[in-house]
Design a protein that fits this description.
- The complex is a heterodimer of chains A (about 350) and B (about 375).
- With about 350 residues, chain A is of the alpha+beta class.
- In chain A, α6 packs antiparallel against α7.
- Chain B is of the alpha+beta class and about 375 residues long.
- In chain B, strands 1-4-5-8 form a four-stranded mixed β-sheet, covered by helices on one side. In chain B, strands 2-3-7-6 form a four-stranded antiparallel β-sheet, with no helix packed on it.
- The chains are: A alpha+beta (about 350), B alpha+beta (about 375).
- At the A-B interface, α6, α7, α8, α10 and α11 of A face α1, α9, α10, α11 and α13 of B.
Chain lengths: ~350, ~375
């Protein structure tokens, strides 16, 4: 991890941690806007993190963004930070000035995260990005009880074409990358909570984590948590090398693995926590309900697997392995990236 | 636990092209059953041809017959071999763990005597760990070497030793002094380089469920060993044997064992399309791409001289789940009548071979115990 990335990750971790932890998740689920947290994040310039420096942003890479989103996920992602980062990056890339405040990302029929709280709506249609006044929100939510609102956008402020590296599916790809990353982070948290509980809760005179049956389940879960971390890392690396549109394979893989891992991770955690983990007062469900919700957003496992599978079938068995290795990041990619910056 | 993604060495692209040309040629003769056996296929002629191309002992110095390439280039070779199901068994163990162990711990004489032969694809190795009463509980082993005026005398029995009957050498872990009273059973163990042609060694192949002979019982009856057959330090055998596990457990042989069936399965599905097959295929491809990233990540750590034993255990467990599930997924997609003869041949072999994937090199339960310990549960 680069030094800058490590510093950013630590800052975001502290900001969200200080903003209230589980109490904050409960507030957000009750419909409150996390005013203090958002102010802190904006003060750090996080909303402009993916906007290039020459456009007044921080100029982070997708790799940096994914690392930040993982930290966000570890805290249950209690604000539309990731969506705003992505929306701002898309606006800036199309030459539209990025407004202040949280941005609502609207693409296709998908509900808009935190729609009722956003200051502007960023509407994606194919390769076109448009900035609108917020307009009217019909409040709704996912089973994570996060705001997911139907929106009637207000008047259009600006509209432009996205550059090629984003492609006509930038909204879908960006959302899939965001959801995979926050799932990766939330699963790290759930694993840590569950290991801690297994070491604390005693039955038959010893901690339940001393039983091999419990150890084996948690080890399998740790394998899935590691797999999602690697999958989102590969997706971010591909996006940095080839743009979002060129990273569809890796992003799709990440979303498939994240969805499968979320399923196993949530089930394992609840099995180990048993009845206490089902209660309203326990913190576990704030994460597991989000995991179940996030599997559905940015394309399900089924959706992305079908896309990957169709491509593999159409290319034929003999091309499967060569196609996979042809996507390896080559040293020449790094050189051209470095050259482009000069 | 940490998985950093390594960069691909720029030489890999040209190397892959060379490998693919070589394997396309060599692979004409391989039956579906041979390709499904993957690294359980033993073909000395093929191993010699691989050695001639400089693809065994790639990372070793030229003085020992090596080629001074990077370990990531070596992984490129392993991947390409496994992707087509090449019968690499005759050199696999020597290249993967026996050779590196000798390079790291052997005397100069041992290195010069053994390593060039491995690199030429001529010397085959087997691993002498399990015993009748010491499987997952390896430290319970009882085979012992006692000092004599001329060196050592070896007595005892190893079992489940893959390819012992076809190998030239075994690296055996044996007891050289009793475990200290109340102390660690890991103390007093040593490794020996055992020439399998020595008098007093009886190798009895054990027929397996597929009707084949690949593993063996090896009995040592007053086998005389020279002082310089000791490998590494007397009494340090446990640490020596377990230090190699990062190499043994994280490579592409832990997730690609059944890969040739996936390519055959895709072709069979194109010939006899099944509704919804793309979803199952896509899930497998996504898993494959991710496992490859995890395995390469451990490869990168090993290249930097780190010792990622927990990460390696995790890669092996996750990889074994994938390579065992792969043939079952294909079965669920295609009725036997729709599977090509090639795929049917592979699935038959894999059904009989797959149970070993999560046994060899450390059982699933042992690996998960290692992961659980790292999580702080034991």
């Amino acid at each position: 991890m680069s030094e800058l990335r490590a510093i950013l990750v630590e800052q975001v971790d502290r900001l969200i941690g200080d903003a209230g932890g589980i109490a904050l998740l409960r507030q957000v689920e009750a419909g409150e806007w996390p005013e203090k947290l958002w102010a802190g994040l904006e003060e750090q310039g996080l909303n402009l993190a993916l906007v290039p420096e020459e456009a007044g942003g921080v100029g982070l890479s997708w790799g940096d963004a994914v690392a930040i989103w993982q930290v966000l996920g570890r805290h249950g992602a209690p604000a539309p930070v990731a969506e705003t980062m992505l929306a701002a990056a898309l606006l800036a890339s199309a030459g539209i000035e990025v407004p202040e405040g949280p941005l609502g990302l609207a693409c296709g029929n998908a509900a808009v995260p935190y729609g009722r709280h956003v200051s502007r709506i960023v509407l994606l249609e194919g390769s076109t990005v448009a900035l609108h006044e917020a307009g009217e929100a019909t409040p709704d939510g996912n089973i994570g009880r996060e705001p997911r609102d139907a929106m009637t956008p207000g008047p259009r402020i600006a509209r432009a074409l996205l550059p090629n590296q984003f492609g006509p599916r930038a909204g879908l790809l960006g959302r899939a990358l965001i959801r995979s990353s926050v799932i990766a982070g939330a699963l790290e948290r759930v694993l840590a909570l569950t290991v801690d509980w297994a070491n604390t809760r005693k039955q038959f005179g010893r901690a339940i984590g001393k039983f091999q049956a419990v150890q084996q389940q948690l080890a399998a879960m740790a394998g899935e948590v590691a797999a999602v971390g690697v999958a989102v890392g590969q997706a971010a690396r591909a996006a940095d090398a080839h743009g979002l549109s060129g990273a569809a394979f890796e992003i799709g893989c990440a979303k498939v693995i994240a969805g499968e891992a979320a399923t196993l991770g949530a089930a394992t955690a609840h099995q180990v926590f048993a009845a206490i983990g089902i209660t309203e007062e326990h913190e576990l469900h704030h994460f597991t309900r989000r995991l179940w919700s996030w599997r559905e957003e940015g394309g399900t496992e089924r959706f992305w697997a079908a896309e990957i599978g169709r491509a593999a079938l159409s290319r034929g068995g003999a091309n499967l392995w060569p196609d996979l290795t042809a996507r390896d990041p080559q040293a020449s990619d790094d050189r051209s990236a470095a050259g482009a910056q000069v | 636990m940490r998985f950093d993604l390594p960069d691909t060495p720029p030489e890999s692209e040209a190397l892959r092209a060379e490998l693919r040309a070589f394997l396309a040629d060599a692979g004409c003769e391989w039956s579906p059953a041979t390709r499904a056996r993957s690294w359980m296929g033993f073909d000395r002629g093929f191993s010699r041809a691989v050695g001639e191309r400089g693809w065994i002992g790639m990372t070793w110095t030229k003085a020992y017959g090596g080629h001074e390439r990077s370990s990531l280039e070596r992984i490129t070779v392993l991947e390409e071999m496994l992707a087509v199901g090449a019968p690499v068994g005759a050199h696999w163990i020597g290249d993967r763990q026996s050779g590196p162990l000798i390079l790291r711990l052997g005397t100069e004489e041992q290195r010069l005597r053994i390593l060039p032969g491995i690199a030429r694809g001529e010397l085959a190795f087997c691993i002498g760990l399990s015993e009748p009463d010491a499987g997952s509980d390896l430290a319970a082993l009882r085979t012992k070497a006692e000092r004599t005026p001329d060196g050592w005398v070896l007595n005892g029995r190893k079992i489940w030793t893959t390819f012992a009957h076809k190998s030239d050498y075994m690296i055996a872990l044996v007891r050289t002094s009793p475990a200290p009273e109340g102390g660690s059973r890991h103390a007093g163990l040593s490794q020996f380089l055992v020439d399998l042609t020595l008098p007093g060694i009886t190798i009895r192949p054990i027929r397996d469920l597929a009707g084949e002979e690949s593993f063996n019982e090896v009995t040592f009856d007053d086998v005389g060993l020279r002082p310089d057959d000791l490998l590494g330090q007397e009494g340090a055998g446990w640490a020596q044997a377990t230090s190699e596990l990062g190499f043994e457990r994280s490579g592409p042989d832990r997730y690609l064992s059944s890969f040739p069936a996936l390519t055959a399965g895709i072709d069979a599905l194109n010939a006899a399309p099944q509704p919804g097959a793309e979803i199952t295929i896509g899930r497998m491809v996504a898993r494959l791409a991710t496992l490859r990233g995890m395995s390469l990540s451990v490869g990168g750590m090993l290249e930097r001289g780190e010792s990622p034993q927990v990460e390696a255990a995790l890669v092996k467990d996750a990889g074994n789940l994938f390579e065992q599930a792969l043939p079952e997924h294909l079965r669920n997609l295609l009725d036997p009548g729709d599977a090509s003869p090639e795929l049917r041949g592979m699935l038959g072999v894999l059904a009989q071979l797959a149970p070993t994937f999560s046994l060899r090199g450390g059982t699933r339960e042992i690996l998960r115990g290692i992961i659980a310990r790292d999580l702080g549960l034991r």
